[in-house]
Write a structure and sequence with these properties.
This protein has three domains: 246 residues, Rossmann fold; 139 residues, no CATH class; 84 residues, Serine Threonine Protein Phosphatase 5, Tetratricopeptide repeat (Alpha Horseshoe). It is 50% helix and 9% strand. The protein is built from 22 helices and ten strands. The strands form two sheets. It has a six-stranded mixed β-sheet, with helices on both faces. A four-stranded antiparallel β-sheet has the order 7-8-9-10, with no helix packed on it. A hairpin with a 6-residue loop joins strand 9 and strand 10. Helix 20 runs antiparallel to helix 21. The longest helix is centred in the last third of the chain and has 29 residues. The radius of gyration is 30 Å and the shape is elongated. The protein starts with 17 loop residues before the first helix and ends with a helix. The N terminus is likely disordered.
Length: 561
Amino acid sequence: MKGQTRSHVKQEPKVNLSHEFSTAANLGVITKKWYAGIQQCIQDAGLETKINAGVEGAASLLMPAALVANLIKIEGLPADRDLRVLLLGDDPVPVMDRGVWLGSVADLAGVQSVTCYCTCDKELESNLFDVAKDLGMAESPRTSVEAAQSQSWDLAVWIHPAIEAGEHDGFASAMPLLHAAGVPVYACMYNELDALIQSHGLNPHGLEFSWLDSPIATARLTRVSVNKYGYSTSEAGIEGGWGAVLTKLQPASVTSSPEDWKAIKVAMSLFRLEGSVSSTWSFAEVVGGVAFNKYQPVGLIGNMAVDPVTGLLISECVNTKVLKVVGHLWTEALSTRPATAFELVPWAARIKLSFNAEITRETKKRIESIELLEVGLSDGLYEAGIALARGYERMGTTDSKAKAAAIYKRVGDRHPMGAYAVAHDMLAQGDTPNAMGMLRKAVDAGYVPAMTDMAALVLDKNVEEANSLLILAMNRGDAEAAFRLGEMLIKGGLYDAALDCLRTAWSKGHVDALNAAHWVCTEMLKAGLGKSGKLKRELKEIQFAISKRTRLENAVQIDAK
């Protein structure tokens, strides 16, 4: 034993923190006094126990108590009696060291007494647990979600629900009963997207996790719902951190469909299997500081953003941090993009699946991902089929490519990208008539790559249609269409117009367009065509783009080594 035995301590320590809790800007201020108080208690008790944790480490132990105390004050619960608080979920942070640190809730909230009952049965110990035992600190009692439903509670808090994972159905089923009993129920989430997803999960129960200042249907997250006592010792919480966003259980203000929930569950499960915990950009927010060829992309799920005007999908290169085009939305998807963040979630989930780049390489997770997507496809979620086919394509083996082709054929024209893939498979097999018919379905759906490819196929027979399709695709942001249109203009001797099209293409990273533009400028200057000043400026920008691309390619090669 590092210090005196537990029986030598007559009562556990009390550190009055109510003043600091009411005035502190963040968890760091409170933790410093709490940490100093624990050290003083050790000294007063004559213990020799050593503390092997700094303020940063201590903050993670105090933040569950700070969360509960904050909600007690928000709810305005009475201070003159023992309060019974139910902590739902399987998050182990509140029960760290058997929940002894939850004993600080009353000191923080400035109330007589608080007893926290936890449903999580995990056992985790910090390097301060010996201190807690030597000071005789009481453990928090455990309960089950089933037993909790027949008891009375002053407050219930669901710690980081994950309804979409399919493992929290018992907790979700308890929500209507607790709400009907008049128990104020709160939940903490990692970020706004997380809160929106959990509200979709509760929708079948007629409930939602509302923001603290407004319903979730039409409003966005504001500072009112940000937990300033989340895990941060220098700021007012961290979005994406533990307990970052606060919500309250309320009747649903909007209706979600079972089909929407299916798409969300599959997309978010795949997202987690990829090892992702947060998106590159804030969900439903215009990407700050980005003017990608005059577009204003809006953040979606994962490393993806969409230009709401053209439907151009953009991601950020992990190595170079340069934005790149990863796809185009078809007309229906673009025109039905929802206006509210809540409705945007299932829409973004379908886009995430349709343009998922690959399946994780980790064997166990790859198997889980394939099973997940196969089940989704069997349930009629064709976006899951597209994700699975694209994943097989990326594997690159003969067998995986055959599997991809079979899945695309199964999806067919039920999804524009399915029709597009099947059309190309038919072309490869020499079945041009049927290929043209299937490709036409993708064109009619407004799928931009199909427009560009159709233009190439009909060019010899119908120049007018080819030109029209290329212009339409170029205006929707397709670099390949702009390049091909530039080539047509070069052949027609319209060099200035060709340079405009080629610029549109190379500014989006089209290498062939960059090289073609360099050649056109050089040849025009040699022949004395056009305005030399304008051509020299154009050539200078082209040369800069070439050198920039070379630097980026070198950087990627170095990172790959």
